[in-house]
Specification:
By secondary structure, the chain is mainly α. It is built from nine helices and no strands. It has two domains: 97 residues, no CATH class; 150 residues, no CATH class.
């Protein structure tokens, strides 16, 4: 099969699975069983509107009452489709890449997209997603070990959990002390426990050595994201409220994907191109 045809098939597959990601993103945060796609008002969507892309193309993105699907639906599908194609183009020449491992890679991308959408919309990283992700990563390490063999994967998981758990606890201590000094209780912290579990999954996928670089990239991305957020709010004439929480999970995921796909190039860059 030609690479072009494979890319086309992966793009279509990404859109199809993106529709599933969207449906789960609607239902899981509300603690309800997954169901067929619905409009925001609860009206079942016709088959042509099950995917955001097809709903947009067929103009079925509005319910009978006029409620419209958010751009998130087609953006998620197209983003996952491009991510699938990019993954293939990056690993196509890797002699270590087998079909089973490639399938694991696609599963990771779908899970990462699901976690990102839910985290951005609800500031939640759900255990109902994290636990299966950890099981899949563990099976990958046992059977294939492309990112890391079992020993390195377990060390990565422990390292990620310990470091981010300390940051999680430190955040509580910092906000408690500062709240007492200000005479005002602060309920938000920089890292949620979901972020702790997410970096643990990252360590399980990548291994401890790659995880160190991943955490470094995560911190940089988080800082850049916060700066961009402040600039955008400033340009929009809005002021930032101190201790307003910002979703952090997407930075962990971006850094993890970068190391999963470009670990060699990133390591070479950090070593000064040596």
């Amino acid at each position: 099969m030609s690479p072009v045809l494979i890319c086309v098939l992966l793009f279509v597959l990404g859109i199809l699975i993106g529709g599933v990601v969207n449906a789960l993103s609607d239902d899981l945060p509300k603690r309800r069983a997954p169901r067929l796609p619905h409009y925001p008002d609860g009206t079942p969507r016709p088959l042509a509107a099950w995917w955001g892309v097809t709903a947009l193309l067929t103009r079925t993105d509005r319910s009978p009452s006029g409620m419209r699907l958010k751009p998130r639906y087609w953006l998620t599908e197209l983003s996952l489709a491009l991510l699938f194609v990019t993954t293939y183009l990056v690993v196509i020449d890797d002699p270590r890449m087998t079909l089973p491992q490639f399938i694991f890679m696609l599963v990771y991308m779908a899970l990462f997209m699901l976690i990102t959408v839910i985290d951005l919309e609800h500031r939640l990283i759900l255990f109902v997603v994290i636990i299966p992700s950890g099981i899949i990563a563990l099976i990958d390490a046992i059977l294939l070990g492309y990112g890391a063999d079992l020993g390195n994967a377990l060390l990565g998981a422990v390292l990620g959990f310990v470091i981010f758990f300390l940051l999680y606890v430190g955040g509580f201590i910092f906000t408690a002390v500062l709240g007492n000094l200000r005479g005002q209780k602060i309920d938000e912290v920089a890292f949620g426990y979901g972020d702790v579990m997410l970096i643990t999954i990252s360590g399980l996928i990548l291994g401890w050595q790659a995880l160190i670089v991943t955490m470094f990239i995560t911190v940089i991305l988080g800082a850049l994201g916060a700066i961009i957020y402040l600039i955008v709010r400033r340009l929009a004439g809005r002021h930032y409220n101190l201790f307003t929480p910002l979703p952090y999970g997407q930075y962990i995921i971006i850094a993890t994907i970068m190391m999963l796909l470009f670990a060699t190039e990133i390591s070479s860059f950090l070593r000064g191109g040596a």
